[in-house]
Structure to design on (264 residues):
């Protein structure tokens, strides 16, 4: 009996093509692109925070630009102008209700020529003032007019300018001490800060005075002696100056936390 062809070929139906292709449906396109959501962390900084960050950056940039512009606006005096400045004085920077009246030893010829206190390149007064938190940015000497609004003023023990402080005589200091006392009585700041212990000793005849808060007052005003910020004072580098200035700021803004006076 001859074989029936229809019964000998059923295996052809055992592997239908449609069924073999089914695995392709296990990785649908939508699922395959899911890892793109890994960039979600970009949303962790809300717009308000980003705006504040941009404003802070802009403020810092503006402050730096203002300082650079102020510096550029001041021309360095010539040798002839420095020589001519010997007979000039630098007006005090002062106002009412001062927290601190800073008193330098005497103006340099550079300051006398420019009309700005602590103007000589290399003087650390302005960086120390900023580093201690008295100012919110580094001011250029030509911006000294901004200080009274911050409760700060500047004067000098001796008004006569010199190339170096060691050119002053003992009589210069004694006379300067008397004049400084009169200014302090008139302005009545919360603190008088004398920048230079040697100058303080000579002006007020207190040979054993030390830095810091003094046991005596001047015209009823507490006195704080700070290091001389001149670049020639190698005993105090800027970080140490900032520490001393910061201690004064703490006392001026929190009088009840002022340290005890140093012993003369």
């Amino acid at each position: 009996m001859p074989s029936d062809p229809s019964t000998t070929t059923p295996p052809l139906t055992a592997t239908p093509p449609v069924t073999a292709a089914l695995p392709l449906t296990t990785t649908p396109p939508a699922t395959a692109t899911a890892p793109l959501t890994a960039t979600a962390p970009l949303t962790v900084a809300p717009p308000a925070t980003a705006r504040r960050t941009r404003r802070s950056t802009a403020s810092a940039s503006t402050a730096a630009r203002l300082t650079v512009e102020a510096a550029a606006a001041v021309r360095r005096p010539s040798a002839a102008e420095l020589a001519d400045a010997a007979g000039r004085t630098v007006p005090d920077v002062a106002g009412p209700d001062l927290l601190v009246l800073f008193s330098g030893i005497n103006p340099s010829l550079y300051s006398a020529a420019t009309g700005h206190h602590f103007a000589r390149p290399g003087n650390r007064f302005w960086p120390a003032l900023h580093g201690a938190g008295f100012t919110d940015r580094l001011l250029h000497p030509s911006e000294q007019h901004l200080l009274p609004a911050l409760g700060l003023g500047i004067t000098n023990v001796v008004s006569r300018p010199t190339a170096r402080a060691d050119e002053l005589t003992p009589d210069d200091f004694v006379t300067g001490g008397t004049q400084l006392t009169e200014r302090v009585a008139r302005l009545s700041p919360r603190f008088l800060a004398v920048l230079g212990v040697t100058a303080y000793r000579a002006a007020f005849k207190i040979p054993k005075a030390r830095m810091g808060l003094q046991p005596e007052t001047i015209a009823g005003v507490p006195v704080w002696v700070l290091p001389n910020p001149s670049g020639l004072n190698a005993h105090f580098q800027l970080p140490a100056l900032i520490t001393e200035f910061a201690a004064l700021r703490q006392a001026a803004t929190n009088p009840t936390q002022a340290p005890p006076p140093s012993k003369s």
Remarks:
- The longest strand covers residues 212-218.
- The mean pLDDT is 81.
